[in-house]
Amino acid sequence: MRPSSSSPVPLYLQIADTLRDRIARGVWRDGDLIPTLEQIAGEFEVARVTARQAVQLLTVEGALKPMRGRGTYVSAPCAAYQPVHVVTSLDALAETYRNTTPELLTIDEHRRMPAVREQDGTLAGAYTYMRRVHSMGGAPYCVIGLYLEDRLFARSRARFRKETVIPILMEMRPRPMTRAHQTLTIGSADADTAYLLRIPVDAPVARVQRVFNDAAGVIVYYADVVYRGDAVNLEMDLDV
Question: Where does the record place the HTH gntR-type domain (predicted)?
Answer without folding.
Answer: 9-77
